[in-house]
Backbone:
């Protein structure tokens, strides 16, 4: 064990002896863990971390779990932890870091992402939601769509147009929006699985203090891209163990049902097993790159292959199960706290995986990013890039 790792183990033990998980209130425990720098150890001192390598995080989490410590239910705050937090850390003022990071990490404040609109998805820079300055506040009007978890969220990251006279990428500003504002109206959108994981969100005269602007006025595109790069890594780039995730589910079904095997299915399984392993090892490499800086466009490639492999494997799982795969346990509309991908049946997985090639950037858009920013191929023709946003036909 490295000296850094042993020192961390010592700190965790010291923390646990001062805060008995069995008798400490869970919220107090989590706040104290944040203050001790044992929340996300790669974050700076004073911001929930100790400025250490990300690679030490799993061991810290394991030690806390083994001691029966409360956890921050990271599965219900993926957007907060994976996307909002790194963006706030990079662009936030000291006051914003003080105000938002701790309740975000402890799970006291769940976050959602108010980016996509009916007319701005792949072309996010086309956002039409307006934010107009009024004294110390901004007044926001518009409609967002596909907002995952908005029904549980206390806060949102929001991209809005603050200047329509300049080309689309330059007139955007990034805000931290309080979802309890009376002008925020969240309505469920039911998806193919029967659930309503996401929502449409109507913003009517929502007031956002200027102190909740993240980055400079007009810097929204740059800040949003930092979020999107983190999103792709969060969706596709998690370090996994061999046969973890969808490949593990399908391999288990294969091993348990010899009667379902055919040579064709065997060939498909072997091919996808190899693809999954290559993706997993690429994820390890990406993790090492991440440990040394911010995620770059390489996260797009990981997310791209994750979506393809997950969809193919969930299709193979259905084929393997034959008629049983056609059963669907529950199609009632619920508004879930989180996506329970592995807790549900094969039919759910098959349908939910369809969204993987849309959420966090469609596979077509990710191919463009890989082509242009990783491989250096000539860029797509973009006709509206230099015209003021207000003059672009829509
Ligand atoms: C499960 C799920 C959860 C989501 N959660 C959120 C969320 O929490 N917050 C949020 O803001 N958004 C969320 N989204 C929205 C998601 O980011 C958008 O759906 C996505 O960016 C695509 O935008 P769009 O739906 O407007 O499709 P469009 O942009 O209209 O695209 C339609 C089709 O055209 C293709 N296309 C578009 N432009 C090009 C091009 N230049 N080259 C080649 N092909 C192109 C696309 O690939 C796609 O196939 C979620 C989506 C899903 C499915």
Residues:
């Amino acid at each position: 064990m490295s000296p850094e790792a042993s020192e961390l183990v010592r700190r965790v033990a010291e923390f646990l002896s001062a805060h008995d998980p069995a008798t400490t209130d869970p919220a107090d425990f989590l706040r104290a863990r944040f203050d001790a720098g044992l929340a996300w150890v790669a974050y700076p001192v004073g911001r929930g971390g100790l400025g250490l390598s990300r690679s030490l995080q799993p061991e810290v989490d394991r030690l806390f779990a083994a001691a029966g410590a409360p956890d921050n239910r990271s599965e219900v705050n993926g957007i907060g932890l994976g996307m909002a937090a790194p963006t706030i850390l990079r662009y936030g003022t000291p006051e914003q870091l003080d105000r938002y990071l701790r309740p975000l990490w402890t799970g006291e404040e769940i976050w959602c992402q108010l980016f996509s609109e009916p007319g701005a998805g792949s072309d996010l820079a086309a956002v039409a939601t307006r934010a107009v300055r009024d004294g110390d506040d901004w007044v926001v009007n518009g409609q967002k769509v596909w907002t995952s978890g908005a029904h549980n969220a206390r806060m949102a990251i929001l991209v809005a147009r603050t200047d329509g006279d300049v080309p689309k990428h330059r007139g955007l500003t990034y805000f931290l929006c309080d979802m309890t504002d009376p002008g925020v109206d969240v309505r469920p959108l039911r998806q193919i699985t029967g659930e309503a994981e996401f929502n449409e969100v109507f913003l009517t005269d929502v007031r956002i203090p200027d102190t909740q602007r993240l980055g400079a006025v007009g810097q929204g595109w740059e800040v949003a891209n930092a979020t999107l790069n983190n999103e792709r890594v969060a969706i596709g780039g998690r370090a996994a163990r061999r046969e973890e995730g969808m490949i593990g589910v399908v391999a288990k079904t294969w091993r348990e049902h010899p009667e379902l095997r055919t040579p064709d299915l065997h060939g498909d399984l072997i091919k996808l097993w190899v693809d999954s392993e290559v993706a997993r090892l690429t994820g390890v490499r990406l993790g090492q790159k991440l440990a040394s800086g911010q995620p770059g466009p390489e996260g797009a490639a990981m997310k791209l292959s994750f979506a393809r492999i997950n969809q193919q494997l969930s299709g193979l799982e259905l084929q393997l199960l034959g008629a049983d795969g056609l059963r669907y346990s529950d199609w009632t509309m619920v508004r879930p706290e989180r996506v329970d991908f592995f807790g549900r049946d094969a039919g759910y997985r098959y349908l939910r995986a369809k969204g993987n090639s849309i959420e966090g950037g469609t596979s077509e858009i990710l191919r463009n990013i890989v082509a242009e920013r990783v491989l250096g191929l000539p860029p797509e023709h973009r006709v509206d890039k230099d015209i003021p946003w207000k003059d672009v036909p829509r």
